[in-house]
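During the first year of the project, the team set up a workflow for recording each protein of interest as an amino acid sequence followed immediately by a discrete structure-token representation. This format lets reviewers and collaborators read both layers of information side by side without switching files. As required by the reporting guidelines, we include two representative entries from the current panel. The first entry is reproduced here exactly as it appears in our internal archive.
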Amino acid sequence: MNTHENDPQQNRHLIVIEDQKYRQTISLEEETYSIGRHTKNSIVIHSQQASRRHGTLMKRKNRRNNTYSYWIIDGDLDGNKSRNGIYINGEQCLIKELKNGDLINFGCEVNATYYESYEWFNTVTDITKNKPQQLTNDSSEVDSQSVLSNPPLDVNCESQLVNPKDTLEAQEYQDTLTKLPNRILFKEYLFNSLKNAKQYHTSVAILLLDINHFKAINKNWGYPVGDKILVEVAQRLKSTLRGSDIVARWGDDEFILLLPKINHGDDIEKITQRILKNVSQPLILSETPLYLEYSFGCAVYSKDGEDSHTFLQKAEIALFNHKKKAILSNKKHHLTIDPKASKLLKAKTALKQALNQQELELYYQPQIKIKTGEISGFEALVRWNHPDLGQINPQKFIPIAEQTDSILMIGEWILREACRQTKAWQDMGLPNFIISVNLSPLQIKDPNFVNIIKQILQETRLDSHWLELEITEKAILANSELSHQVLQALRQLGVHLSMDDFGTGYSCLNHLSKFPFSTLKISQSCIQELIDKPETIAIISAAIALGNSLDLRVIVEGVETHKQLDLLQHLGCREAQGYLLSQPLTNIEATQFLNLSQDSKVSC
């Protein structure tokens, strides 16, 4: 049956399946195909060893060259896996992008070959018929193996050879470390499960699981050990789940589970407790038991939403609230890496006490226009005035605050105090300027963060365009998809965004146009090397030129000598910050600095 005309402009996809009864040559055009021995499948394979729903073909767009390719998944999109697995070129896989000439085995005597070509022949079997037909090629007496060695395509034709550089990434749907499905594939599963739940009036739940203090694990034991822990947790989660459940890697230290068959209201609690009991068993590292602490958040259809976005958002909020309240600490799921764990707990208590007893204080470092000496902004910097230890540098307590999640409450206090003080200066009739506040990656992950910014701006009555939030590129790369969503939402509020610490080893100029930044801050480490290393001059010069061309504020921090300042001005830099111009000031000193700046400019 001829279903297509020869169209050299259109890429064709073909799968040739050979089972005990039939050899089928099938034109692939639809978005999805189900494969299995059940007669209701899009593609029926005839073998008692095959599963009723053995595999799924998914059509996906190749973003690089605007063409399409097909991916094959073990099982169906409801999470049911096949009994015998799927093998591509002899290697078992959960999901894989098919490439021209791939040999597929369904864990039994059923084999298939996938082809991608611009050439087309009149040998396509219509899969809409109830019973597959044998090929009606010119040579009808081809033996049962000839379809694999002599397919109805010219496989040596140059037009159908696939350039590896034009294909999607091999791990498009799979996490490379744990081999679990990643966010992209999980969303496919979730979308399909919600659609079925709506159609058949059933319940679906998702469960987000987060390993608390995972940064402390990486720091104390090293990243290779951290990776081993993630792999072990992934395996324990897989072993705990029912056949229809799915677990995926959701983030650095987060896993997400899809539970499509929830029959009773208490099912989710029972399943959660069973999962926690399994993953909370100690891991033995170098003969030392490691007990992990977890936080989790769940959402249930349709109580918590009917679409994927709302559903996931509810689970994220539940996870965040669960971490904030430390519910699991009352259930004896404690992180006991080594004696340092107790120190972290003491540090968390001390930081909370410091906030409650007003031991934290903001300092303000001016940002100066090099040519005119005018103040263009201030950066808010936190200090801890400890009653016994004196002033503690943020480099010492901020990392601890991030390990213990205390950075969320500290970061909110910093934002509120910086906005309040800036509005107070404006009410005093002092010059208007932008106030810059550093963000932690954990704040970006907080699903309520944008609302917190809105609330602070409303409380302090500060116009949003006077607030600038600084985030490092490293923090962005940790979760670029989420960061992009959050930063776009902040920019829509009118808040300015600054890429901080540019030039520290993670820098990519492409991110300046990809994300909605209005300011580029060049790292102090670059400035320290400015005089001695010509290559650093080239990097800074390129960054300044690009920033200026994109109409960004370009600020160089850490300026300490006149020689550095002169060179920066020569390179076209317009603003600078550093001890040469002014050290960080208390709010009283900053007020005096602003009063003086009205009468005379800062000497550069």
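The second entry, processed by the same pipeline in the following quarter, appears below.
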Amino acid sequence: MRVLRFLLFVFLAAFLGAGAGLGYLAYALTRDLPDLEALDRLRLTATSTLYARDGSLLAALASVEEGRAIHRSLVRLSEVSPAALAALVFSEDRRFFSHYGLDPVRLLGALWAILQGDLQGGSTITTQVIKNTLLKDLAQARTLERKFKEWALALELERRYTKAEILEMYLNVVPWGGNAVGLKGAAEAYFGKDPSALTLAEGLYLASIVPAPNARYADLKGVRARMRLLLDGMVAEGWVSPEVAEAAWQEPVAPKGWRVRYDGEGNLLEAELVDPEARILKAVDFRFAPHFVLEVRRFLEARFGKEKVYGEGGLKVYTTLDPVMQRAAEAAAKGARLPEGAELAIVGLDPETGEVLALVGGVRRAGDEYNRATRALRNPGSAVKPFVYAVALENGWTQATLVPDRPLEFPDPSQKDGVWRPKNFSGTFLNREITLRYALDLSLNLPAVYTAHSVGIEKVAERLARAGFYVRYPTLAIAIGGASITPLDLAAAYAAFVNGGYRVAPQFVSRVEDAKGRVLYQAAPERVRLFSPEVAYQGWDLLKGYVYDLGERGLAKGARIPGRVVGGKTGTTNEARDLWFAGVTRGLSAVVWVGRDDNRPMRMGGREPSSSVVNPPIWRAFVAEALRGRPGGDLPPPPGLVAVRVDLLSGLPSPSGVAVYFPRGREPLPPVVEPQEAP
């Protein structure tokens, strides 16, 4: 009996000693706990989402943690399907709603494991929130310090927050393998879905892999066995009915990257991991319009800084892209007939607001991030001439003003003999005076150079710079394409001919909101006055003339769209290094550029191609489809302009001539016929 009491005393002393030792250890390890208020201040990186102008999803910009792209979009409980939520809670912490942060059943098991030297076990949804936020630095460490700190903080977390709030935290912080963090990222990574669309079977799959997602992703057969156990447990505990469980089991779950085959009973007959990278979400995940999205990303970085975009993230970015127009641009680009080795850019923007509605920055290489629409600064060739003539119109000229098409010489120290002798593209000339309008219809160089010289090259250079052209030196060569411009800026400049005379600033983003819906940026049109409404409309009239005046001999006949009035101008630079067509119509200013990235001369079928052959059909294919069903009539002239039919060559009134707009009081008059003396 004495021995029994002694043994009992020894056991009790050992138990109390162990308890005291464990208590002291717990105290020592939990003295320096993180402040739980840090959860309120915690900045969770989150994926920024881009939307097209119709509200459809355009792209996602992943956040960055520790130099790595992370796909995490914050989700509310109300945005998660109840079936998937039930699967996750049952699998991870089925007594979550009845315990106070620590599950007594799991806790006893964890303590027993600790006494045996195993530091696993005891995890609840509440402790996982702590592990993945406040104790993130210790998340991979299997130590007593982490365990005791998790338990202490879990109790405090339960005291301060509701169960719903804690569960929502969990759904947003748990890593799900690859680069997906949180349920929304996981749903997209594994099934390409929003959490609201997840089925019970898909929720069970995600619940089954979350303890070791990278390893379990590669073991679909093992995951299916785990799903079966979970379903049986949910039925046994009354979470789902047998019928619901059986329907979930028979659903052919196919995570991204897997090729699978099931029988009618839900048995996995074949499973092959064909693309292990399929679940990895890219830093920039496009739905379409990759070059447009990259331009939006560049804007966001410049406007808000990389730390805001990638370090905090969660931005909702509403862009200007019109999906219908974008698809029309991409179809036109895909069907384009291009010179050997050539690239292409297409831009379409709203001439009133500058909103970029469609953009193609290249067609040759997949994954190519070089955006030719916004970065290719190239010479515009004859596409600059409408601006030269608009400056002349502003200085008192009319479309019927006569300009010479004959050899011209100008002093130029850069030339071999100190003289510059410009030539027409054809190398020939009419050797007479013709109207300004006819000179543009034929795209003659000599009249354009003469015009710039007569009105003053400084005036022309200043106006071109204001329109968005890069003018290095104000020389006469800029009148026939010596300045430089990007396709995007040329579209913004051409908008002036149909919006009353304003160059519009291109805009890719209309509004940016943070994760809480607060507006961080709201776009407003930016317009720079280039010409008066009267001059701008006469410029529009010139552009229409270029498309229609010469009938089947017209250089831009390929741009005509039945039922729609269009105007525009081609441009071809020396040796066909750049081919352009810039056109405008009601509701759209659009540009098509074709050229090589290395700026070498282009060839097409062994010959030097012309912009009048290559570009207008591409432009027409884009614009006709982009504006299908929208108004296509002519624009009304502003007050003060009158239409007179004139002969294109002489500029004199002619009933059979072309209708041309003139300022009232400056319209051409028929020649005065001197009365003859009677014999």
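For the second entry, the following points were noted during internal review. Residues 2-29 form the longest helix (28 residues). The chain is about 40% helix and 15% strand. Both points are flagged for discussion at the upcoming steering committee meeting.
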